[in-house]
């Protein structure tokens, strides 16, 4: 899909927003929950809606069709309406239902209920299984906190006696996978751990577990992310509002990175190229079963405009762009550095206010559109290993002055990215990304 192919879908978004505001008006606990989410964590409850289950209505079906929704069938035979071009909740219909059910995606149902003083009337599905749904009775309907792990259907998950220890072992291996040392050894160990996880859990659930471990590693190195996560745990949702995960990669490792993602079942989406303009390229990938989005950055040369850099070995260059320098100073994201940033969906103004009040600076937005707004927190400054600096200096990739500064002051490491989307828009802003990549070049700090 081309860079500008994702449409704005105002009618579809408005249909669902009207549903939510009517539901919240009829159910004061939901209205109070939405207010608490925004005030405490800057999280818009609408961004956590997984799906609606509505009473049968031909009028609603007609409205959905007019708004661009299409009817699909899950492997279990359940019918669900979804919008193929928008980042919006899905809709189900039940013949015997008389009031709506609102399903919110959270990381742990028990945490959500406890954090918000709700009593579950029932809970279906085994803990940590592919799908679990809780039930909270409301005056006019029902609230359903749900968890999904590599699964898009609606059948509660079940474990057998061997599944739980197998999952625990996979999680230990993902958390402990080697990240330091020789590049070839890191890739070999990572592939081994990933292949093992896929063999045990299947690729969809393995992808879910892999990126949960990646978020934990990233968060350990980002104070802004730690602070924001704590706020989101206060409302019991964890990182359920994640939008995309960003990986920076050296040119030599980029093809291997794409192969790793393909093993999980990610599909290539739009490809950004800004070589002559900013010296970078990015491949965006999407994993349909998990709703995971990856934004993968790499240095690019002006003459590589027509190169499919996701499937081509990129030769070494005698100079570094912003991405290559970051990897040279800290390591690739798949290795020691971890993710460059995690991006989540928020009420932009509120989360910015909250972060700044807590002492975390927020950079000027690099996207400020009617349907998309994005900004980074001020970078976490990481110390840089002397051997990395010396290697870059020996290859004349940095100056002696820059080397001394990196050793004395460190260099920009990770960010938390705050984002707000409107009208179901699921694309990105190439020009804005170019600007923020230039602005965060370690040589300019």
Can you walk through the features of this model?
With 445 residues, the chain is an alpha+beta fold. The protein contains 15 helices and 18 strands. The protein has helices spanning 10-26, 28-41, 58-66, 109-115, 163-175, 183-201, 203-219, 223-234, 254-264, 275-278, 322-330, 348-357, 386-394, 400-409, 430-439; strands spanning 49-55, 70-73, 79-82, 90-94, 101-105, 122-124, 131-138, 141-148, 242-248, 267-273, 280-287, 292-299, 341-345, 367-368, 372-376, 381-382, 411-412, 415-421. The strands form four sheets. Strands 10-11-12-9-13-18-15-14 form an eight-stranded mixed beta sheet. It has a six-stranded mixed beta sheet with strand order 4-1-5-8-7-6, with helices on one face. Helix 1 packs across helix 2 (28-41), helix 5 packs antiparallel against helix 6 (183-201) and helix 13 packs antiparallel against helix 14. It is globular, with a radius of gyration of 22 Å. The two termini are 35 Å apart.
For the structure shown, list the relevant keywords:
alpha+beta, six-stranded mixed β-sheet, 18 strands
């Amino acid at each position: 899909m081309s860079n500008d192919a994702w449409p704005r879908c105002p009618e579809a978004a408005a249909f669902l927003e009207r549903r939510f505001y009517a539901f919240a008006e009829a159910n004061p606990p939901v209205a109070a929950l939405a207010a608490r989410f925004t005030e405490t964590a800057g999280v818009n409850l609408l961004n956590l809606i997984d799906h609606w289950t509505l009473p049968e209505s031909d009028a609603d079906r007609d409205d959905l069709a007019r708004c661009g929704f299409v009817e699909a069938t899950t492997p279990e035979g359940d019918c669900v309406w979804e919008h193929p071009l928008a980042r919006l909740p899905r809709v189900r219909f039940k013949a015997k239902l008389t009031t709506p059910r609102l399903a919110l995606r959270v990381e742990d149902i028990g945490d959500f209920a406890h954090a918000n003083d709700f009593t579950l009337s029932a809970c279906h599905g085994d803990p940590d299984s592919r799908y679990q749904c809780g039930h909270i009775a409301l005056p006019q309907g029902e609230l359903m906190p749900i968890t999904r792990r590599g699964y898009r259907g609606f059948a509660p998950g079940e474990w057998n006696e061997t599944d739980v220890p197998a999952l625990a072992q996979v999680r230990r291996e993902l958390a402990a996978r080697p990240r330091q040392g020789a590049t070839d050894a890191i890739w070999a160990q990572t592939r081994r751990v990933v292949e093992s996880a896929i063999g045990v859990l299947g690729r969809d659930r393995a992808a879910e577990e892999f990126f949960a471990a990646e978020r934990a590693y990233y968060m350990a190195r980002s104070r802004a992310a730690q602070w924001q996560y704590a706020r989101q745990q206060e409302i019991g949702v964890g990182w359920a509002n994640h939008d995309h995960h960003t990986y920076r990669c050296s040119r030599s490792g980029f093809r291997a990175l794409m192969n790793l993602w393909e093993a999980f079942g990610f599909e290539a989406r739009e490809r950004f190229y800004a070589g002559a303009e900013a010296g970078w390229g990015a491949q965006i990938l999407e994993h349909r079963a998990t709703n995971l989005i990856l934004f993968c950055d790499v240095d690019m040369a002006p003459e590589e405009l027509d190169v499919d850099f996701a499937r081509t070995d990129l030769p070494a260059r005698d100079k570094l762009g912003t991405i290559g320098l970051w990897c040279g100073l800290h390591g690739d994201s798949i290795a020691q550095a971890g993710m460059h940033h995690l991006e989540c969906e928020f009420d932009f103004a509120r989360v910015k206010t909250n972060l700044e009040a807590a002492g975390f600076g927020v950079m000027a937005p690099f996207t400020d559109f009617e349907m998309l707004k994005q900004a980074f927190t001020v970078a976490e400054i990481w110390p840089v290993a002397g051997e990395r600096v010396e290697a870059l200096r020996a290859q004349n990739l940095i100056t002696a002055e820059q080397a001394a500064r990196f050793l004395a002051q460190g260099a920009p490491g990770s960010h938390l990215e705050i984002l707000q989307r409107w009208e179901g828009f699921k694309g990105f802003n190439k020009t804005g990304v170019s600007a923020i990549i230039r602005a965060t070049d370690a040589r300019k700090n």
